[in-house]
Amino acid sequence: MFPLRILITEDDHVSALLLKKALEKNNHEIIGISDSGEKALEILAEHQADIVMMDINLSGELDGIKTTEIINEKYDIPVVYLSASSDSETLTKVVGTNPSAYVIKPFNIRELNMVIELAIFKDRKEKELQKLNNELEEKVRQRTADLHEANKELTRALEKEREIGELKSRIVLNVSHGFKTPLTSILSSAQLLQLYAEKEHPFKQKIGKHAQKIENSVRSLNNLLTSVLFFGKADANKIDFNPKKMFMAAFINEVVDVVKAGSENDVKINLKIGKIPKTITSDVELLYQIFENLLSNAVKYSKDGQEVDFSIWEEDDMLKSEIKDYGIGIPHKEQDQLFDRFFRAKNVGIIEGSGLGLSIVKKCIDVLKGEIKFESNPGKGTKFIVTIPVKK
């Protein structure tokens, strides 16, 4: 990503310095650090910024949300919110200021860099769209003198408006698709490196180690982009139920193989396939999202040497499944937020994640008109019970 001029607005001095250090490692220029909205506006009056990293809770009379409203009005530059809070009241206030992005603390630098890229992309596209709108309005005004021409131009204008509306709803989708192709190439190269590392070579061990790191990082980023892509479709109301005949045994084994390949933990998956028909009719993609996310989470939040139990069977035209791990579990006070978008429990520690997986699972199950329940105890593990109607 090209270097950016960034203003950090954060009332926690230590957090601000850590953020400054992380951003400077990626060659960004920090034009200033402010602990209040008033000081942030003073800095922007004297220095040009490409983007503002904005904490919601600030010292002084202006909080982050009010400061962002002023920045939107005076400077028209993208703002990325930084907050440890994800409650509905805060999110409602945030949405009202049309932020470029919203990041829940704590976050890692890789996720932060990705959010910054998306924010800059979104800002550029919105300005391009505004330019298109202005040009469109000008064309309509210029042609109103001739009634016949005006009618023709009006038809074109309406079509253009429709295209612009669709483009706005697909910005996130386009970003995700744009990343998919290079990520696939990187993943293929990493896998080739691993093949070469199997041959005799003085750096055999190092090649294999770094190739595995590349592959795991690409898989992690690819999963995040898949999640963004999914919610881009969800927000545009474009998630449809597309039932097709599918072979159950092959589908289940593929899910298990993919989870094993992407796992960084030494966790054994105990697969128990009960009485299931050879084929069923359902939406393959939605089912894959459900089981891959649940099984990946079970493995990710388990320790090396632990096991995950994955049972699946069919009963009364219902596909039923239980996925049980013996890992860190979910704190009781946080269990009602489990399916909220971007929610991550406080006990996850340094385990990476976007907080989108379970919200994707819930959305898919709703589309399939199914049901999901769970039981969890901190330190003892979690069990998810999934029931989905299917046709044979």
UniProtKB/TrEMBL annotation:
<dbReference type="GO" id="GO:0005524">
    <property type="term" value="F:ATP binding"/>
</dbReference>
<keyword id="KW-0067">ATP-binding</keyword>
<feature type="domain" description="Histidine kinase">
    <location>
        <begin position="174"/>
        <end position="392"/>
    </location>
</feature>
<dbReference type="InterPro" id="IPR005467">
    <property type="entry name" value="His_kinase_dom"/>
</dbReference>
<keyword id="KW-0902">Two-component regulatory system</keyword>
<dbReference type="Pfam" id="PF02518">
    <property type="entry name" value="HATPase_c"/>
</dbReference>
<feature type="domain" description="Response regulatory">
    <location>
        <begin position="5"/>
        <end position="120"/>
    </location>
</feature>
<dbReference type="InterPro" id="IPR036890">
    <property type="entry name" value="HATPase_C_sf"/>
</dbReference>
<keyword id="KW-0597">Phosphoprotein</keyword>
<keyword id="KW-0175">Coiled coil</keyword>
<keyword id="KW-0808">Transferase</keyword>
<dbReference type="Pfam" id="PF00072">
    <property type="entry name" value="Response_reg"/>
</dbReference>
<keyword id="KW-0547">Nucleotide-binding</keyword>
<dbReference type="InterPro" id="IPR003594">
    <property type="entry name" value="HATPase_dom"/>
</dbReference>
<dbReference type="InterPro" id="IPR003661">
    <property type="entry name" value="HisK_dim/P_dom"/>
</dbReference>
<dbReference type="InterPro" id="IPR036097">
    <property type="entry name" value="HisK_dim/P_sf"/>
</dbReference>
<protein>
    <recommendedName>
        <fullName>histidine kinase</fullName>
        <ecNumber>2.7.13.3</ecNumber>
    </recommendedName>
</protein>
<feature type="coiled-coil region">
    <location>
        <begin position="118"/>
        <end position="153"/>
    </location>
</feature>
<feature type="modified residue" description="4-aspartylphosphate">
    <location>
        <position position="55"/>
    </location>
</feature>
<dbReference type="Pfam" id="PF00512">
    <property type="entry name" value="HisKA"/>
</dbReference>
<dbReference type="InterPro" id="IPR004358">
    <property type="entry name" value="Sig_transdc_His_kin-like_C"/>
</dbReference>
<keyword id="KW-0418">Kinase</keyword>
<dbReference type="InterPro" id="IPR011006">
    <property type="entry name" value="CheY-like_superfamily"/>
</dbReference>
<dbReference type="InterPro" id="IPR001789">
    <property type="entry name" value="Sig_transdc_resp-reg_receiver"/>
</dbReference>
<dbReference type="InterPro" id="IPR050736">
    <property type="entry name" value="Sensor_HK_Regulatory"/>
</dbReference>
